[in-house]
Amino acid sequence: MIFNASRFSRFLLGALVVFLSACGGGNSGSAEITEGITVNFSALIKNEANTATTGSKVFFNSEGTQITLTKAYLVIWSIELDQACSSNHFVGVSETLLNWIVPAAQAHAVESPTRLSTPNVIDLTAADGTTLSLGEITPPPASYCGIVAELFPADDDAANLPEEIDMIGRTVYIEGNYKNSEDTLIDFSIDLNTKFQEKGIKFSSLEILDGNNKTANSTITIQYNQWFDGLDLTQLEQGDVRSQFLHNVRNSLSIN
Fold first, then answer.
1. Mind listing the pLDDT tens digit for each residue in 126-160?
2. Bigger pLDDT: 26 or 73?
3. How far apart are CA 172 and CA 151, in angstroms?
4. What average pLDDT score do residues 96-110 get?
5. Residue pLDDT, tens place only, 232-256
6. Is the Cα dihedral 108, 114, 117, 121 positive or negative?
7. Are residues 65 and 192 in the same domain?
8. N or C: which terminus of the chain carries fewer CB neighbours within 10 A?
9. Could you tell me the CA-to-CA distances from 131 to 118, 147, 212 in Å, in that order?
10. Does 210 lie in the same domain as 173?
């Protein structure tokens, strides 16, 4: 048998071309699926007890104290889709101040196809039931079980920065009053640059994104009337009261 090197080389070259073409075709299909997938994020302002129009918000906490918010802002720093939902962000932790704060070194939004990394300032004095668009991402095809939201201070790239309050470097800003036992209105303010521990929120069912399901909408509900439940409003500067407030803010987030 005579070995024909030239013929064998042509055979190998042809096989290689077929192989590369197949690989290229597969990648193209995957890219087409990925490019067509979008997830739109929004925030819904909600008061479970009643519905208020734009402006000052009047409600009662769980202890029956009347509270009025004349200014109220919250910063959602980033939102990321999650495929595992098994981290500590999705389980309960002890309610101490340090557990609701992360070190400054972690306070950054890493760019990722699964992450909305533009901070958004939410004005909670908008009418209850208002849905605010936060942005969209183009994640890869996968099955997603929930999101991880970060509440960090706004920077100068944040969307919806208000004119009346400089929210750069702030996470929560509130002005308002409460009515004490003598029916006297007591003014208060809360001004925080806290970097909250990430908040994991599971979807009610898996969100499967693929070539057959390319669009999804995810709405984070902020139930602000829960923020002051269980608080001694005369001691808002005290560590344990502030810790409970941080816990309430974090837990007021849910998803639709």
1. 999 999 999 999 999 999 999 999 999 999 999 99
2. 73
3. 9
4. 50
5. 999 999 999 999 999 999 999 999 7
6. negative
7. yes
8. N
9. 17, 18, 27
10. yes
Task: Name the pairing type of β-strands 38-46 and 215-223.
Answer: parallel
For 35-91, the pLDDT digits (tens) are 689 999 999 999 987 777 888 999 999 999 999 999 999 999 999 999 988 877 776
2 with 53, same domain: the answer is: no
In a shared domain, residues 47 and 141: yes
Tell me the residue type at 25: G
Q: What are phi and psi of 118, to 5 degrees?
A: -90, 120
Structure tokens at 54: 């734009």
